Amino acid sequence: MGQIIHREFIYLWYYFGIQFEQIFKYWVLGMLIGSAVSVFLKDHIHGVFRSLGDKKLGLMGIPIASALGIASPLCMYGTIPIAASFSRSGMRDDWLAAFMMSSVLLNPQLILYSMALGGTVLAVRIVSCFLCGTLAGLLVRAFYQNKSFFRFEGFDEPKSRDTDPNILLRYLKNLWRNVKATGLYFLFGILLSALFQRYVPTEVTTTLFGGNEAWGVLMAATIGVPLYACGGGTIPLLQQWLWDGMSIGSAAAFMITGPATKITNLGALKIVLGMKRFIFYIVFVMLFSLLTGMLVNMVL
């Protein structure tokens, strides 16, 4: 019995070590550049978005807002309070919807993590998140043009924690917070990937997520809801699943529903949207992820 446990430990450590070596550099790069964007560029990005309120851009403001949402380094809990401050300054709800949707799905740090999945998957992730934000803004414009979509009462703009007068210390403190927030999820994701490699046959992944059928996309979109806890933690799993036969369309569906329906985010979203619009949001995310996944599989 002891020999069996020892042997299995060696196998798992082997799989863990291989993927850690392959993906660790992307995690480090994400930490370093993500913190740099947060400390040195965040206020500028938000300032650019705030300045859009003074311009008569009309529909063109929606894709711009979506692109700025991707560039913003904030997570959901940071995005909602800053969006509340934008709203109080007169920002249009359709632009806010585009900014918030794409910001929830993607940020510069996660873009760098996703490089580990290959150039094609990275491009699909960026484009699909941008289009998701843009479409969200267009739908809010179409159906809520003359009435309010968000309820931001009680959400104040967060106080920045990047206030140390020493610029190097300011960056290092942000970097350390990043490491603490994502490090355990990153290691846990690699451990789960090692367990999949050792105990789950490749055929299972191919059956569940492979091929161009709608079933694989639906499964990936559905499993993204309960499984997604941290963007960095899911990259090792996605990498392993793609190696084992997961289609790129299924990966795209998972990368949309995961962050958009992250359990820890849904409570805040329900408060901001109200029940009716919250259900509208969930339906929109699921439909967009399914259609995107099937379209990606058709094209690729």
Low-confidence stretches: none
Rg, Cα atoms, Å: 20 Å
| Structural classification | mainly alpha
Average of per-residue pLDDT values: 86
Overall structural domain count: 1
- Cα-to-Cα separation, first versus last residue: 47 Å
- How much of the residues is beta strand, in percent? under 5%
Task: Summarize the SSE layout with pairings.
Layout: H1 2-51, H2 61-71, H3 76-88, H4 93-105, H5 108-114, H6 119-143, H7 167-199, H8 202-209, H9 214-227, H10 231-243, H11 248-260, H12 263-299
Structure description:
This protein is an all-alpha fold. The protein has one domain. It is built from 12 helices and no strands. Helix 1 crosses helix 2. The termini are far apart.
Keywords for this structure?
single chain; 300 residues; mainly alpha; 79% helix; globular
